[in-house]
């Protein structure tokens, strides 16, 4: 049963349900403005709590392995964007879907699932906490910069000053404020994890409902054929397979021990739905955002499924300590 829960995250069901509701009953008129404002407020609260949850102790514990973190950073913000840029120029993708495929590859890594899968696979948990947290922190700045660079080159979009201002006010400022207040509220946040989970997932669902609803009103499902949807699924699966193979090979070439190679595999192959959906709502027009986040939601499902299988495989393997190897760090 626990394996089924890992493979089929209940949040994915909630996400698909939200898409279905937005397709049948999209927000219109005053309700569209209400849900958009509510989603923005939830995003501010989400990043405030993310800042408050960021543990300096965990970062210090795992920050010494600079080679590992550099490898994760390169996979997340160099290799992924190169793959995305190539896929976005495939002729069978519409401009909106191509933009979504590219945007997907520019996002930071996940935090919760990267750490969870690393723990299941008996990897270096402290290093995973550090890499995933650093990726998300840097991604608030790096992802918009990559969007501006790659989409200007491809002629898809440009990052406006308004977008920069929105990112600073809705993402950076709440995150910094939450982390600054961590000594005061960190204990409260840690003791109320179910509440932070509700905010985390609820904010994503609100943005998805608002963005998809607007896209549906603009004719999303008339412009997206079943064939196009199948091609997006195939493209997402191809990107995920490529990045998993490359990070696995890189772990061996860089001579990482088993625990660190697992961190590179899981932290370097993920893309964050929690960061991507709010950023898409800020960076793209409402009518575009629904189509842009579609590849991200598909990739999210695929990465959970694939990494759950891989983590279980590692968990079932006996761990033979290598001579001179470092012990697996724990939190």
Number of domains: 1
Morphology: globular
One letter per element, helices H and strands E, the order comes to HHHHHHHHHHHHHHHH
Regions with little confidence, pLDDT below 50 for 5+ residues: 322-331
Q: At the third CATH level, what is the topology name?
A: Na+/H+ antiporter like fold
Helix proportion of residues, in percent? over 70%
Number of helices: 16
What's the total count of β strands? 0
Question: What is this structure's SSE topology?
Answer:
Layout lengths: L1 H6 L2 H15 L5 H24 L2 H7 L3 H22 L7 H11 L6 H9 L4 H29 L7 H20 L1 H10 L1 H25 L2 H4 L2 H28 L4 H10 L5 H11 L2 H30 L16
Descriptive labels:
331 residues, mainly alpha, Na+/H+ antiporter like fold, disordered C terminus
Short summary of the structure?
The protein has a single domain (2-315), classed as Na+/H+ antiporter like fold (Up-down Bundle). The chain is built from 16 helices and no strands. It has helices at 2-7, 10-24, 30-53, 56-62, 66-87, 95-105, 112-120, 125-153, 161-180, 182-191, 193-217, 220-223, 226-253, 258-267, 273-283, 286-315.
Please tell me about this protein's structure:
This protein has 331 residues and is mostly helical. It has a single domain, classed as Na+/H+ antiporter like fold, CATH 1.20.1530.20. The protein is built from 16 helices and no strands.
């Amino acid at each position: 049963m626990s394996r089924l829960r890992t493979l089929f995250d209940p949040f994915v069901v909630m996400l698909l349900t939200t898409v279905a509701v937005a397709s049948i009953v999209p927000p219109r008129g005053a309700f569209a403005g209400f849900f958009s404002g509510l989603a923005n407020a939830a995003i501010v609260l989400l990043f405030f709590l993310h800042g408050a949850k960021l543990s300096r102790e965990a970062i210090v514990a795992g920050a010494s392995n600079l080679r590992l973190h550099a490898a994760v950073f390169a996979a997340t913000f160099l290799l992924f964007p190169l793959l995305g840029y190539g896929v976005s120029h495939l002729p069978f993708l519409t401009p909106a879907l191509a933009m979504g495929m590219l945007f997907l590859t520019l996002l930071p890594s996940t935090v919760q699932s990267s750490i969870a899968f690393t723990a299941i696979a008996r990897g270096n948990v402290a290093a995973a906490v550090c890499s995933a947290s650093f990726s998300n922190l840097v991604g608030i700045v790096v992802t918009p910069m990559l969007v501006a660079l790659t989409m200007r080159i491809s002629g898809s979009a440009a990052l406006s000053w308004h977008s920069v201002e929105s990112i600073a006010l809705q993402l950076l400022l709440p995150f910094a404020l939450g982390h600054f207040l961590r000594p005061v509220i960190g204990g409260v946040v840690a003791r109320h994890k179910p509440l932070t989970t509700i905010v985390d997932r609820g904010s994503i669902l609100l943005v998805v409902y608002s963005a998809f609803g607007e896209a549906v009103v603009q004719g999303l499902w008339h412009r997206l054929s079943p064939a196009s949807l199948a091609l997006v699924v195939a493209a997402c699966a191809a990107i995920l397979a490529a990045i998993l193979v490359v990070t696995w090979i890189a772990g061996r070439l860089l001579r990482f021990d088993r625990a660190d190679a697992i961190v590179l595999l899981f932290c370097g192959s993920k893309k964050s739905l929690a960061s991507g959906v709010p950023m898409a709502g800020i960076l793209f027009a409402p009518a575009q955002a629904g189509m842009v986040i579609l590849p991200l939601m598909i990739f999210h499902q695929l990465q959970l499924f694939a990494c759950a299988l891989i983590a279980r495989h590692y968990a079932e393997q006996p761990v033979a300590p290598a001579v001179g190897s470092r012990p697996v760090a724990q939190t």
